[in-house]
Amino acid sequence: MLNFKSNIILAPLAGFTDCAFRKLCSDFGAGLTVTEMVSAKGLHYNNDNTEVLLKTAGETPCAVQIFGSDPDIMAEATTNEKLQKFDVIDINMGCPVPKIVKNGEGSALLNDIKLAEKIITKCVKTSPKPISVKFRIGFKENDDICLDFAKMCEASGAKFITIHGRTREQYYSGKAKFESIFKTAEQVKIPVFANGDITTIDDYNFIMNNSNVYGVAIGRGALGNPAIFSNLLGKSTVNKKQQILMHYNYLKQNFNEHYIFTNFRKHLVYYIDGIKNARSVRSAIFTAQTIEQAINFALNALI
After folding, report:
1. Residue 95 a catalytic site member
2. CB 31 within 8 A of CB 4
3. Domains assigned to the chain
4. Does pTM surpass 0.90?
5. Which of 3, 131, 153, 190 is most enclosed, with most CB atoms within 10 A?
6. Tens digits of residue pLDDT in 119-163
């Protein structure tokens, strides 16, 4: 079984959890980091777009998250040599994005537990790495298939599961519901990570003090504050300005100027979220001519 560095892990976020951000979160104590979603079909057809998603920067332990709906192609992906540097292969069964769901992938699999079971079983059989699964508590607004789906994952050989406390139809609206996750954690033997709306030490303590979950997975709560892992673990941390500079340094070590300019500005907006005049600073960041200029706008705003 994988040894987690802590019981607080970084959840995958499309467009955000590249290797630089994962490395930063790992430095701050994330027990596991997870890549952005990688298409199993993309791996099958050797799509160039998967290369940047699979780039690593020494973050450890690290999981690669794959998605798809074809059991054979998913199983084939687990044996792909490009994935062997990762410690875990995570299967996405919770993405709510329409184009993913329309293809029968992501959270669409919550509506087809037999197909989901077939995918996990085949992946476990072929994979040289531990398999985990991330899913939501249900598909429609009032669905609650959390326990049944979790038991299926466990019986199919998944080593741990991460459960987002919303249905697919909720997307990211409303509040995450943890009751189903807590009930599930009591009835399965594999580790359960709770995910959704965890941004403070009070959120973390509430979950850990009121359930049998193994830990929590933080996604959006880490944007603009990768030091949240240190905060929740009670360890010394650094301020936002230092986090920005550390983040930028990892980006420079791993990506070209075009990638950094395109991708880091949206992170900078999260770093300055909540400050006075955030709207004008946000506008300045996105109209900056260079990434250095955008960074300076953010740093000066944080003084």
Report:
1. yes
2. yes
3. 8-232 (3.20.20.70), 240-301 (no CATH)
4. yes
5. 153
6. 999 999 999 999 999 999 999 888 889 999 999 999 999 999 999
